[in-house]
Design brief:
- Helices cover 75% and strands 0% of the residues.
- By secondary structure, the protein is mainly α.
- The longest helix has 28 residues.
- α1 packs antiparallel against α2.
- It is built from 5 helices and no strands.
- The termini are far apart.
Length: 152
């Protein structure tokens, strides 16, 4: 494993842990129920799942590429871009900076690209192959929805 991959994986795990903690954090007792779900917590939970499945997909793509299957080149690049973008989005989204909505819009587009790249292997899902790509594809679709809810 290259040092950069190790650092990326470590950062991804840190984001996952922070996202999971924030996603499951209970708000202070409020006598009134919230009118709608907390979009930030939903975004962080969706990003955490995207990162979890994305790391598995990235590793699967790397193995396929190492075995000589060049059909995974597009998926590999797309998932790496998604991992980097979702990590930044989790941080900025949690902070609630003024640029958060702009970054969430970019994150949604990058997740769509990753979803589409993973879908290139859809014909194999029914045969139990490339399920890492299927799971990543589904997580990216859910993250796109969470991004839209956050930006609204």
């Amino acid at each position: 494993m290259h040092r950069r991959d190790l650092l990326t994986a470590s950062a991804g795990l840190g984001i996952l842990a922070a996202g999971a903690t924030l996603a499951h954090a209970k708000p202070a007792a409020d006598p009134k129920p919230a009118a709608k779900p907390d979009a930030t917590a939903a975004l962080l939970a969706a990003i955490a799942e995207c990162q979890r499945t994305g790391e598995l997909c990235r590793a699967h793509c790397a193995k396929q590429l190492a075995d000589g299957d060049k059909d995974f080149a597009h998926c590999n690049v797309a998932v790496q871009a998604m991992l980097a973008t979702t990590a930044a989005t989790a941080t900025v989204g949690a902070l609630g900076t003024p640029q958060a909505k702009q970054l969430v819009t970019v994150c949604s587009a990058v997740c769509k690209e990753c979803e589409d790249a993973c879908a290139e292997h859809k014909a194999h899902f029914a045969h139990g192959m490339h399920l890492e790509c299927r799971d990543c594809m589904n997580a990216c679709a859910a993250c796109e929805k969470a991004c839209a809810a956050f930006a609204a």
